[in-house]
Input
Amino acid sequence: MCTVEKRGSLFKLILNSDEDDQHRLSPTLISSILSALSQIKSQSTPGSALVTVARGGSGNFFCNGFDFRWAQAAGSESDARQRLRHMTDSFRQVVSAFVSLPMPTVAAVSGNVAAAGLVLAFAHDFLLMRSDRGVLYMPEVNLGITIPDYFTAAVRAKIGSPVALRDVVARGVKVRAKEGVEMGIVHSAHDSVEGTVEAAMRLGEELAGKKWVGEVYAEIRKSLYPEMCSTLGLTHNLIISKI
Amino acid sequence: MCSLEKRGNLFFLTLTGDDQHRLGPPLISSILSTLSKISSEATPGSVLITTAHGKYLSTGFDLSYARSAPSPSEALDRLTSMVESLRPVAAAFMSLPMPTIVAVTGHAAAGGFMIPICHDYILMRSDHGVLLMPEMDLALPLPDYFATVMRERIRSPAALREMVLRGAKVTGEEGVKMGIVDSVYDSTEKTTEAAVRLGEELARRKWNGDVYAEIRKSLYPESCRALGLTQKDLPSKI
Output
């Protein structure tokens, strides 16, 4: 489950470890994140910003993708596929909610982040990562499973270099924080969990200090990622503002 | 306003005066008619070099003209009309039948950044001037073709985010690292000289301008769609 803390204009979305220290995206966690984002959106004011962190457990995972254990526990292979499809469909709404959230968003990636978990991180505006351990990667090619359309749309939106895109998506390369910075995927690398979270909070506070109008921010963000928006079914809203 | 001078193969489009070169209706139409004249006088080997007097290339639309309208809705109409009239200017740069070079010797912000980003080569001073998209600070939406042209010209998602979503003030040297600026020089004179050297080098190729424009357009298909430009089928000389 996740929880939300609010400190000044900064929202902190916390992925907790009470059920799973790898913070795998089970139906429960997905719907918990979705309702948290809806709550955050309804409370947003000019100057709001969001920082997402993972808390507790071994500290080695930010988010390790969908909860395959839950899918595999279905009994039959077709039921397992059904469960995976259910997670894929409901997580789409989480990515949509991040892309249209009316405030800057920062992910403090404090451990391994893989598959759907990486898409969760990429759905943020800024991805900060710890450099002393942990990798980001897309394991689908190794697992022999295909990648949902909105996953690739999100990855293509955030990885500009064709070489980096091939390595991450079609080669399953495990990318450490400093390599991620060189590849232009990771905004900054920090040498501990605490350092990563502190830097994310500082960045969140700096962005909050701009007092930007959230609705304008969300529209400008969407205009940067037209393919991802069309895959997610997000449309543009015309903001009539004062000049 | 802007002036036009021709030296050999090089056309010099200069935003004149020491003001901020705000893109109000008079400046926009002056640039558009100058580009149309340049296009009509193009010969194989022509090159455009764009520069500006003073400390600013351009700081964007003339918001004080918009704000001086009698009512808020008319103010918005004025802004919308400037946004729409700059679109053909961007289209004219993108379809100009010759290589285009801009010497950025002062600040280029918002609509004023559209001018350099529509050129083939961006040379910039390192000692003065920033590239800046202040829409977030002004709480103004980003016109559709601004976003499209910037996406196609700034290929690094991180650079695009810093510039557009964070409103970062990008100096010449940062612009080089971000893949936005081609090269930097430590004074206005050196920037302009480098632009002239590059212009002369490109002019010597004696490229066919119509072919050049079609090849340029083929690199930026989304921008062309947003700007209403279509590909022309040119008869090949082979």
